[in-house]
Amino acid sequence: MEATVISRDSAEHDGQQEGTVNVSVLQVEDLRKRYSADTQLVCDGLNFMVNGGEFVAIIGPSGCGKSTLLRMLSGILPPTSGQVLLYGDVVRKPPPEMALVFQDYARSLYPWLTVEKNVRFPLARRRDIAKAERDARVDAAILSVGLDGFENYYPGQLSGGMQQRVAIARALAFQPRILLLDEPFASVDALTKEGLEDTLLRVRDWLGSENNTMLMVTHDIDEAIYLADRIVILSKPPCVVTEELVVNLQRPRNQLATRSDPEFLRIRAFIHGVMGLTDQRNGA
Asked: What confidence tens digit (pLDDT) does each residue in 26-40 have?
């Protein structure tokens, strides 16, 4: 399958990845954020959508408001104006259909709980779920991220990459309809990052097309291209959407073959141009 890149100007929401469900899950409408009356806008009229079964990556320069945006999408932080719709309903608080994986895995895990108990934690108060099903969810989530055999380890006994896999497994055990990821691999080394990227892609396959919608913010252009079906590019603050690109690279993806694909390199160069990185490196 030949990959394509479609700009926001030519096809604003077209180019859905083959095999996904073309139903809007998340809609962002004219979203603005200002932390106080005497501060600058962080986000200034953001508009985009996420369709069912898509993996969407949001990239932009450092400090442009990517994490602020993710917190508004998840209902943790209210917008100043505009709205976020999840399945047509306005998001005003963290919705049960959504889970968020934070960048700082060390602070998101409970150090006094084992891997199994950390993953089980969000299900502890779900009395609507039978114990047998909770057990099955926890076991399946741990297995999906490759941590079977480490159930009784504590976070402090694990590497950074393994700790982040615990955080992902905990989100999966909750069985969200959409998974948000806030630069989830920014705190690990390059080799560990590649392994976690592939873990995330395997997890999407494990979830199936009904529940594998993912939205990730990252500053890593190569990571966004490797993982995503579509990329949303934000401007400098106050951020707006400057471009939307469909990444139609063949799946399953491979760290060596995909990253050396001429289309991967063309997309990378295009994004560098949109973000002005080419001019910076040429000394302009």
From this structure: 999 999 999 988 888
